[in-house]
Amino acid sequence: MSSPSSHDEAEVYVVKVKQRLGQYSADSTTKSKLRILTLEEVETLLRKGSFRIIPNPFSKSETAVWKKFGLLQLEDSSKPLPYAACRNCQKVYPYNSSHSSGTSTLKRHLQEYCFTEMTQ
Hints:
Blueprint: H1 7-21, H2 39-48, E1 51-54, H3 64-68, E2 69-74, E3 80-86, E4 92-94, H4 104-112
Antiparallel strand pairs: 1-2, 2-3, 3-4
């Protein structure tokens, strides 16, 4: 299982998400009209139930960070998306497991915004 890595997979992902946002029409199928979603749009879709938060399938063990965060997945897809979300407040961050994204930002979020002890 991996995040969308090829251009075609990423394009299909953007089309599916744009359909959910109501921003997709027949004339917007050209690559030049597709754009990556903003984090705000992703958070809105998460709150509307278009995404679910799943355990990180790429983590070898359930670390303190991954107990509090998960990857996003479209309801009708089996592949995780390149976003991590806080299970507590649903704040979304970019996360790409195939490009060695670290967890420093996720840890900082827990310490500064959700005031969570990392050992819990």
